[in-house]
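Review form for a predicted model. The reviewer records the input and the model, then writes brief findings.
Reviewer: anonymous (R2)
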Amino acid sequence: MGLSETVAAERPHIAFFGVRNAGKSSVVNAVTGQELAVVSDVGGTTTDPVKKTMELLPLGPVVIVDTPGIDDGGKLGDLRVKKAKQALGYTDIAVLVVDASRGMTEFDRDLTETFTARGIPYVIAYNKADLLESVPSPSDKAIYISAKDGRGIYELKEMIARLTGEAKSEKRLVADLLSPGDTVVLVVPIDKAAPKGRLILPQQQVIRDVLEAGCAAVVCRDTELAETLTALSKKPRLVITDSQAFGSVSKIVPSDIELTSFSILFARYKGELETLLGGVAKLSELRDGDTVLISEGCTHHRQCDDIGTVKLPRWVEGYTGKKLKFEFSSGGGFPEREELGRYALIIHCGACMLNEREMHSRIELAREAGVPITNYGMTIAEVHSVLRRSLEPFPALAESVK
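Model under review:
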């Protein structure tokens, strides 16, 4: 996958924050070299976070986010502020744009405290430096710029690039579990829910990671798995299956070959595997009338036997023997913390379309609300009685499963 093909979830999310009329959108346009954001002298022009995936030198592939003014008022303004604060959930690097002619406001200071509390690296860009008689020297955290005449814009991009490099994660999907020369079998069911002519993103990313580890990736459908295993000249190091096929695949793969799923690999890569494993224990404690939230990080066309809205509720009710209520969220529609308290359990997808910080933010919201959270892969493994086996690549966690 080349730089231009890097998926949004794998790109650093660089978000620009600030009060109205600090010139935030002008700074975004100056940094990107594009008319990405609407610029106006009227406060509150930016009404929702604007996202743009792009190549930005010297950073490389990024997602640029322009957020609404953090000081907006009124009913509509409050909604804009809420949208801006929600952007913190997926922000890897924050740029706080301050009007240099006015200096830091109370809203700006509150934002820097929030960045620090959330562990978000940030830089303060004092815009409108062209209005100052003298311009202070930059520091590690602050720089004086002018979106109007371009001064300091290149240096600002250099500062963002440095922070991006410091924040970059070196985690791997599966490569760290393999040795060069290993063979990995990937089980990819092709049914009416599978996209025509392509593999879904988690499958593509795992295949790429296997190849980068110097290993062979053998891809087959669940219906040809037994024949594929027999045809291999040496035993595969690992079998990775689509979670929906856990039940049938676990019966085919010999016990001396480790087995896991794409969803479980992504739970480790994007979230906190141990926390999500702990959440799956709540399945056996559910009671009649409990409400379960099933959440997906993306939006897609629902099929007649959709995994999130049809299969999972059916499997969970069959496993628990309880009459449950199910609610669903998708894309950026994850509930606020105060709304989560009414759920007995959250079952989240593998989060291939969310960046790591957003998945961590959702887990933290659930933790603060006191609601257990798990994911699709572990839930499906548990209801098919193969959870312990599905965690074999992670021995310490497998041992913790009864």
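Findings: The chain has three domains: 3-167, 175-265, 272-383.
Further findings: The CA atoms of residues 26 and 261 lie 45 Å apart.
Recommendation: see findings above.
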